[in-house]
Amino acid sequence: MGTYLFRRILQMILILIIVSAVVFLLVRLLPGDPILMYLTRQDVEGISPETVAKMRHELGLDRPIYVQYVDWVAHVVTGDLGNSLVQRRPVISDIKQRMPITIHLGLSAFFIAVLLGIPFGVIAAVRRGGWLDQVITTFGNLGITVPIFLLGILLIYLFGLRLGWLPIYGYTSPFEDFWLNAKQIIMPVFCLAIPPITATLRLTRSSMLEVMRQDYIRTAWAKGLRERAVIARHALKNGLIPVITLNGITVVIILGGSVIIETLFNIPGMGRLAVEALRSQDYPVIQGVVLFTSIIVTTSNLLVDLTWGWLDPRIRYD
Question: Which of 57, 67, 199, 285 is the most buried (most CB within 10 A)?
Answer without folding.
Answer: 285
